[in-house]
């Protein structure tokens, strides 16, 4: 069983001795916890009825990101509202707070996280806390702390308390030397961002904990995820969301990738469905711990042509961003997800035409779309 560590004490010791023999400087990370009395109060608030006790007790870390709120909604519908606890270090919106149990959880505070797992009798943990690629490159020490130290805390707690643990990976876990078309589950991975490096680390550590300690670790490599209820944030695949907003608002879209840049993509409902399916799959059905999943692959040009079926007058121009293009050129063009389809029956519901129609229906129609239809 892994050695249980007092992270706050360890961080304090490291800060007092910045050299620490590891060849890197240590940047202070603020770990804000809550008292055992507060945790006990939360545990009482989150108590469940006997009729719900046969379902998993779920904790989602980093739950206020793109996927956490949607995943909580899906899991609460399946397992009961009070059996799924959403957590983050940020203040939730009112509608999120009132939709089901929410608790403060800092993954860098080992003791706090462990108390939450124990007091709420958690059995499944979805670990979504991470600094993504652009933010991570701007603050590598913080990304290293959150994405790697935070992961180690989660792995130790999950192994100690026999949790079923899900950690998402990413298209960014591959690099320019990986086979791109298609990219298999097992191949060379040499990413060039701290986010990608930390995800490869998570895949390997999860697999190691599975074989060394028997941890039920499960992981999916997500392609680019497209969602109508999240705003594009400037990421490499965010053009595939931005085009819908611009088509509705202005009828003009400027793409920062080349028109023939092919990347694997997925609608968010398929992503959440795959996540639940792999967690519910019998352990004996899984031949590996980390799987590719895919739904479609398209280029900006192909997406624009499909969008123009709904907004014929949409004007598309290209102003290539060299940094984003270099990242895209190092990523897979197509995911080989044949193992997921064979082992646990993965099959997406959304292809490109269905994706485009669904995005417009959620974002709302205007006169151009109504006229086109």
Automatic annotation (TrEMBL):
CDD domains: TDH_SDR_e
Catalytic activity: L-threonine + NAD(+) = (2S)-2-amino-3-oxobutanoate + NADH + H(+)
Start and end residues of each NAD-dependent epimerase/dehydratase domain: 58-293
Domain of life: Eukaryota
InterPro entries registered for this protein in UniProt: Epimerase_deHydtase, NAD(P)-bd_dom_sf, NAD(P)_epim/dehydratase
GO molecular function: identical protein binding; L-threonine 3-dehydrogenase activity
The protein's role, per its UniProt record: Catalyzes the NAD(+)-dependent oxidation of L-threonine to 2-amino-3-ketobutyrate, mediating L-threonine catabolism.
Family: Belongs to the NAD(P)-dependent epimerase/dehydratase family.
Name used for this protein in its record: L-threonine 3-dehydrogenase, mitochondrial
Species annotation: Coturnix japonica
Gene: LOC107312408
């Amino acid at each position: 069983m892994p050695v249980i560590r007092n992270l706050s004490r360890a961080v304090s010791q490291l800060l007092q001795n910045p050299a620490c023999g590891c060849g890197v400087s240590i940047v202070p990370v603020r770990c804000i916890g809550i008292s055992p009395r507060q945790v006990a109060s939360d545990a009482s608030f989150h108590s469940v009825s006997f009729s719900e006790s046969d379902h998993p007790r779920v904790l989602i870390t980093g739950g206020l990101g793109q996927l956490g709120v949607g995943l909580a909604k899906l899991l609460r519908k399946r397992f009961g509202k009070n059996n799924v606890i959403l957590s983050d270090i940020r203040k939730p919106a009112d509608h999120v707070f009132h939709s089901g149990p929410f608790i403060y959880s800092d993954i860098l505070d080992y003791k706090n996280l462990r108390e939450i797992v124990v007091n709420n009798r958690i059995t499944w943990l979805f670990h979504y806390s991470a600094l993504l690629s652009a933010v991570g490159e701007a603050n590598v020490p913080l990304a290293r702390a959150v994405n790697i130290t935070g992961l180690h805390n989660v792995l130790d707690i999950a192994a100690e308390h026999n949790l079923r643990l899900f950690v998402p990976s990413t298209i960014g876990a591959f690099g320019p030397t990986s086979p791109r078309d298609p990219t298999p589950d097992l191949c060379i991975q040499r990413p060039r961002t701290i986010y990608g490096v930390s995800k490869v680390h998570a895949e390997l550590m999860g697999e190691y904990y599975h074989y060394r300690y028997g941890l039920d670790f499960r992981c999916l490599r997500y392609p680019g995820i497209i969602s109508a209820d999240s705003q594009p944030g400037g990421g490499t695949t965010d053009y595939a969301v931005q085009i819908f907003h611009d088509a509705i608002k202005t009828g003009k879209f400027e793409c920062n990738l080349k028109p023939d840049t092919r990347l694997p993509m997925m609608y968010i409902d398929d992503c959440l469905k795959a996540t639940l399916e792999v967690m519910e799959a019998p352990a004996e059905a899984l031949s590996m711990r980390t799987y590719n999943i895919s739904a479609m692959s398209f280029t900006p040009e192909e997406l624009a042509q499909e969008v123009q079926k709904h907004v014929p007058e949409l004007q598309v121009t290209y102003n290539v961003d060299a940094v984003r293009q270099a990242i895209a050129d190092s990523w897979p063009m197509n995911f080989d997800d044949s193992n997921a389809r064979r082992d646990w029956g993965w099959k997406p519901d959304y292809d490109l035409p269905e994706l485009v129609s669904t995005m417009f229906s959620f974002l709302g129609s205007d006169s151009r779309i109504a006229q086109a239809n």
